[in-house]
Design brief:
alpha/beta; five-stranded mixed beta sheet; 7 strands; about 10% strand
């Protein structure tokens, strides 16, 4: 009995319980709650962040212990040196996004880093497309789509999706920035094309399937990571530099613009990581105050 109690305390420290309640349906049954409790950590994170964007869902977290301010700095000092999970990536990204001026953000929007992966699961596809509709991506010049797939981060960018596919000055196209070229970035192309086609169809766009499938997918030769841990940091830096330097009107005639293998140096990346860590640290402290 004593051994069982000790094990119970340990498990309670390690496991965070997430309860999801659909307002439009009757009270959750024990069976439905059990199904949610069997979700993987990644799936729970997907649902948690996604349903927060949907007013028809209420998500309830059990209270968490408040973190010590003294531990924040030492923890963040090494965070960017490790492979980022989706939660850490989203936190860094949100702090980076807030650092840009409102004028700069006017031409951009972004999708949650888990939506692409979630779209690949048939059970969540319709919900993801509903969330994307709320982003009004066809009114923006650029849409940032961070992707985490097969434990690797890359960055997809939609350019001028609201323009005619026949335009030459504002060319609808896609950019795929990958810091691990040897892993063959184009292995994602079939999934990307399905994703884009579903987005167009959900928006009721008039473009034909053939014209949508002919939207160019460009893969510039960008700087490459030096180990297996840096891909998330590279994607954040891609976002930062692209937002700073994106042309007013993207044309495939001038591709790849600044996106070349000597785009930035390891020192530049290191400096950026220090900057983004300081933003994260400030955010953590503000949250505790």
């Amino acid at each position: 009995m004593r051994k069982s109690r000790r094990m119970g305390r340990k498990e309670r420290k390690l496991v965070e319980t997430i309860s999801i309640i659909d307002v439009d349906s009757p009270s959750p049954t024990s069976a439905s709650m059990k199904a949610h409790s069997n979700l993987t950590k990644q799936e729970a994170d997907m649902i948690k962040r996604g349903f927060l964007a949907d007013s028809s869902m209420i998500l309830v977290d059990f209270p968490r212990r408040r973190r010590s301010k003294r531990k924040i700095k030492s923890k963040n000092a090494t965070a960017m040196q490790n492979k980022l999970d989706s939660g850490a990536f989203e936190c860094y990204f949100q702090n980076l996004w807030r650092s840009f001026s409102e004028d700069k953000k006017t031409s951009f929007t972004y999708l949650d880093c888990l939506w692409f992966e979630l779209h690949r699961k048939s059970a969540y596809k319709a919900k993801v497309l509903t969330w994307i509709q709320k982003k009004d991506i066809f009114s923006k010049k650029y849409v940032l789509v961070p992707i985490v797939c097969w434990r690797h981060w890359s960055l997809l960018i939609f350019c001028h999706f609201g323009e005619s596919t026949k335009s030459e000055t504002r060319t609808p196209c896609m950019l795929l920035l990958d810091s691990l070229e040897k892993a063959n970035p184009r292995r994602l192309e079939p999934e990307i094309r399905k994703f884009v086609l579903d987005i167009y169809k959900a928006e009721g766009r008039l473009e034909s399937k053939d014209s949508i499938y002919q939207i160019p997918l460009l893969v510039p030769k960008v700087p490459q990571q030096r180990n297996g841990e840096e891909c998330g940091s590279f994607v954040l830096y891609f976002i930062n530099l692209f937002m700073e330097n994106a042309p007013e009107d993207f044309s495939t005639q001038h591709f790849p613009y600044f996106m070349k293998d000597n785009w930035f140096t390891p020192e530049g990346l290191k400096s950026f990581c220090a900057k983004i860590e300081s933003l994260k640290e400030k955010s953590d402290i503000d949250e505790l105050l």
